[in-house]
Amino acid sequence: MTKKEWKIKKGDKMFKFNFYDVLKDKVSGFSGVCLARTEYATGCIHYGLLASKLNKEGKPFDNYEWFDTSRLILVKKSKKTNKNKTGGLEHNAPSF
Predict the structure, then answer these.
(1) For position 82, what pLDDT does the model report?
(2) 34 burial via Cβ count (<10 Å: 0-12, 13-18, 19+)
(3) Checking phi first, is residue 65 left (phi over 0); if not, alpha (psi -120 to 50) or beta?
């Protein structure tokens, strides 16, 4: 990844992809909407994608598939913004 691909702002890395972008994994071919992202202390950034297709039972998938930035390509840039964060429940929060 080149320096130009990472935008530097106040010493922090900006994320390469945005929420609601449609991304595709170059290795598996899996594609989905970016609804989560995680930055690890090691510098790795993973994106959580939710499949836009239905499962075998005709229902939406309810778990994210996680991929490293280096494996993803942008399929469609989102026009939607995430300015009005509600702080609501996680989409697939664990249950006990």
Answers:
(1) 58
(2) buried
(3) beta
